[in-house]
Design brief:
Largest sheet: 4 strands, mixed
Structural class: alpha/beta
Strand content: 25-35%
Helix content: 25-40%
CATH architecture of the largest domain: 2-Layer Sandwich
Strand order of the largest sheet: 1-2-3-4
Distance between the termini: 38 Å
CATH class of the largest domain: Alpha Beta
Number of strands: 8
Number of domains: 2
Amino acid sequence: MGQKVNPNGFRIGFTTTWASTWFARGAKYRDLFLQDVRIKRYIKDRTKESGISEVEIDRGKKVIVTVHTSKPGVIIGKQGAAIEELRKELEKMFGGTFNVEIKEIRNPDADAFVIAETIQGQIQRRMPYRRAVKMAIEKAMQSGAIGVKVTISGRLNGAEIARDELFKEGNVPLQTLRANIQHAKKHAITKFGTIGVQVWVYKGLVFKKVQQVQSASLSAAAKEAA
C-alpha cells in the first residue's frame, strides 16, 4: 500500500493541507478545479527549470497564487517586471483579479520537487543517471533530510528493454501518517524515450499538526453531541 498511494495526498489533514483553498458546489466546483489545474500547468511550463516546488491557490475577492520556488529571481525578474507580466497573463487567460506571491524555498537541496527537477535536467543533458541520482541524494542528506528514495524507470542508458532502478539512503517510512514525506515526479525526455523520475524525501515526524487536527475533530464532535 505504501508503494502505491501518493504520500502527499495520503497525509492531507494530518501533516499537510490542501494546495487550493476555496469552496464551491456543483458545476462551479468542476470549473474552478479544472482552472486550478490549468493555472498550475501554465506557471510551471512558462517558468521551466526555475525550481518550482508547489503552487498554492487561494480564492476570495482576488485569486492569490503563491509560488514556492528555489530561484525567486527568475520568476520575479528585473524590478518585478516578470512577475507583473505573469499576473497580467493570468488575468487575460482566466479572467478575474490575480495576485502572484513568491516564497523562497529555504533548503532547496532537501526539497523533493527540486531534486526531481535537477535529476531530470541532468538526464536530459546526457549525464549518467546513476551519477546524477547519487549526487542529488548525497546533497539532500547533507542538507538535513533523514531519508531519500529515488526510482528511475525507462530505457536506461538506451537499453532495448525498459527497466526501473531504485536508489535509497536513510529511512523513508511511507505508511507512518505523521511522517513528513514529500513526493515528486518528473519526466525526462531523451532521444531513447521518456525516463521517469520519482523522489521521496523524509524530513522527520510531525506532531503539532496531528494534534491540531485531532483537537479540531474532537471539538466538532462535542458541538454535534451538544
